Amino acid sequence: MSGLTAALELEQAGHTVIVVEAQARPGGRVLTMRDESGSPIAEAGAGRIPETHTWAMSYVNRMGLETDPLYPEGLSAVIYAQDKRFVLGPGADPARHFDLTDAEKMLGLDGLARTHIFSGIELVKANGTMNGPDWPATDLMKFDEITARDYLASRGLSEAAVNLLTLGAFPRTISALTLFRVLATYDRTRLRKIRGGNDLLPRAMAVRLRSPIAMDALSKAFAKKLGRLR
Fold it and tell me: Which of 29, 52, 82, 222 could, after both became Cys, cross-link 45 (CB 3.0–4.6 A)?
């Protein structure tokens, strides 16, 4: 997506570009799984677009695509945690499916997040714009030197509570600072998905390019190298 974005912006500025794509399709980790008729089944990457991601939303609008709420009203959620599959009805607290300590159970998911994550989010917000050249400030750097999971464990949380607070949305190895930064601009009530599949965005961007994309470049380069070895 970053390559497609850079290419479109450079072309708009009057430059000639060459996009080299390792895969046989555009879009990187944006991948919509489809059935034989082409209808979307599930998103295998980049599943949500927060409305606060104004840069991504601007491209959705520029490509003439429509969006829908990520979570339709009235449906249940399915989570996989502690080697089990759980179905959560609307408004259900997933914390009850984790082996929390008694004190952690009293707090629940929202209470655990407020107690152990919100202070870091407020620190990030207090340090000004997150897109400036001087970000992050020195006093935030310590949070970039520890993973989010290790940070939460250092606050005395059980492994179950750490698993709950890092459930689903983020890679397990991100830094605590990355977690704080994401959540500082994250509004779960304003998450969108592209109608018809999120891969419609990179497809539309690829069509807009004046020059064709050199697809499947990685396998072609490997085949060329293999031919030289033979």
Answer: 29
